[in-house]
Structures are given as C-alpha cells and as structure tokens.
Design a protein that fits this description.
Number of domains: 1
Mean pLDDT: 94
Number of helices: 12
Distance between the termini: 23 Å
Order of helices and strands: EEHEHHEEHEEHHEHEHHHHH
CATH class: Alpha Beta
CATH superfamily: 2-enoyl-CoA Hydratase, Chain A, domain 1
Helix content: 40-55%
Strand content: 5-15%
Low-confidence stretches: 279-283
Structural class: alpha/beta
Largest sheet: 6 strands, mixed
C-alpha cells in the first residue's frame, strides 16, 4: 500500500493501493506513520508524495461516508494539518487524476509538480457536498479566488497547463520515465533550513474585490441552484477564506461539510453514485 525510499536527503513516499489509492482509514494511518517517521529523520530534507499507479489518487473512500469511518483519526484534515505543521517541506508529484481529498492533500503540501495531462479537481459538489479537507480555504489562496470558485462550484477538473497558469502547480514535467527524476531535481533545488515551507496560514486571498465578486456569483448561480443547498454553502465557505483567519475558515468548512453530509440532497446523490458503480464507492464523482 505504501513504500518509502530515500535518495540522498529526499524521501519518496509512494502510494500503491489499486484501483485508485483511495484515502480510507488504512491509507491515512499509513501516511501518518510514514510522515511522522520521516519528520523525525534528520537525514531527510524534503518529502515527496507520489503514486505507483497511473493516477495520483481518486480521493476519499466515500464508502466511509456511509459507515462513519470518515471521522476516524487521522482524518483527511488531520493529515493536511500534519503536512503543514511539519518543518520539512513536502512536494506532491501529480500524474493522472488527483481528485477531491487527493487534491486537498496536494494543496496542503508546499509544492506541486504535475504532468501536462494530469487532472485536478474538487468534485464534492456533485455529491451535494463542499470540499471538507481544506479545499475551500487553500485553493483560493493558492490558485486565486476566481479559479477556485469555478472549480468548486462546477466540480470539474483542470489539466496541468491550466493548473500551472493559475499557480496551482509550480512546474510541469513530461510524463514518462523521466518524470520521477524531474521531481527529484526540483526537490533538490529547494532552499534548506525551513525556508522552503509555504504554509497557507501565512497566505491571503489576492483579489481586488472579493465581496463584490462573491455577491455577483451568488446572483449568477441563483436561478439554477435555488433549490440546492450545497452551492450557496460552498460560496459561504469560500467567503470565509477571504474574511477569516485560516484556522477559523477551516473549522467553518468542516462544519459545513458535516452539515451537508446529512442533507437529503447529499444522501440521494450518494445513493445514485453507489447505484451507478455497483456499490464500490472507492472513487470520486
């Protein structure tokens, strides 16, 4: 499921849990143990999170939405907090899809490297939800308010080129045998002594008029979403990224996710999701 390899002072944490590297409780516990062990190793200067599969990860195991394992520690927000609190910089290597909770994990990392074909998205709204592991707080700070709002409200992914243009990823490297070596070269160029850390708690959403923009978005989507709970709740959480301290925004986001999870609209969307996939539930919308 998980392997760790150290190349000089760079540690690669590689996920290998077919079919989609779902972030269920077993994967979360394995990642937590690996991160804590590497954080304590003074030979490690950079941690790279990557995948042995053709995709990075399909995100949360939504089967846990039904059975309650979603809240078992460490949760996805716990893992994101662990990454950000670490004194060691994290780099995410994104090949294929990084969806939902997988992108939220990547957003908690300090740097993101992707292939041009990589697809990154937050599809939670298609299940009547909002991103619940920091997506509404980190994405506006990293990729900009307008890009984040469109991604969260549509649930549609963007590719590597678009992600580079908005700042979601830091560098594109061609897919193939040279991708991992390119990621290693990128990691080796990072400054030492903790100077490479880029925590979202230290960032602000950059926009000339966030209140005006979000008000316009509320008006724009109202005709098509007046009977839906999640879109306006997503905008409320995005607004928190613009107006509240980071930790307070995260707390509001988690509360909003828990609230939406119990709505009839979300339960029906989940029912349809499982019906379409034969109940497997270990991938994203």
């Amino acid at each position: 499921m998980l392997s760790t390899e150290r190349q000089d002072d760079i540690a690669f944490v590689e996920m290998n849990a077919p079919p989609v590297n779902a972030f269920g409780i077993v994967m979360r516990r394995a990642l937590e143990a690996a991160f804590q062990s590497l954080e304590a190793d003074d030979r490690v200067s950079v941690i790279v999170l990557c995948s042995a599969l053709p995709l990075f990860s399909g995100g949360a195991d939504i089967h846990e939405f039904r059975v309650g394992g979603l809240w078992d520690a460490p949760t996805l927000p716990d893992l994101c907090a662990l990454i950000e609190a670490s004194a060691t910089p994290f780099v995410t290597a994104l090949e294929g899809a990084a969806m939902g909770g997988a992108l939220e994990i990547a957003l908690a990392c300090d740097y993101r490297i992707a292939t041009p074909e990589a697809m990154m998205g937050l599809p939670e709204i298609k299940l009547g939800l909002l991103p619940g592991a920091g997506g509404t707080q980190r994405l506006p700070r990293i990729a900009g308010l307008e890009t984040a709002t469109h991604m969260i409200l549509s649930g549609d992914p963007i590719d590597g080129a678009e992600a580079l243009s908005c700042g979601l990823v830091d560098e594109l490297i061609a897919s193939g045998p040279g991708f991992r070596e390119g990621v290693r070269d990128f990691a080796s160029r990072l400054p030492g002594n903790g100077d490479a850390k880029r925590r979202c708690a230290d960032m602000r959403v950059s926009h000339s008029d966030p209140a005006g923009y979000l008000a316009a978005m509320r008006k724009e989507i109202e005709p098509d979403t007046r009977d839906l709970v999640a879109p306006q709740r997503c905008l409320q959480s995005i607004e928190a990224a613009c107006t509240l301290p980071f930790r307070e925004g995260l707390a509001q986001e988690v509360a909003g996710f828990a609230e939406l999870l119990e709505t009839p609209q979300s339960r029906e969307a989940q029912r349809r999701f499982f019906a379409q996939r034969g109940g497997a539930g270990k991938d994203t919308p």
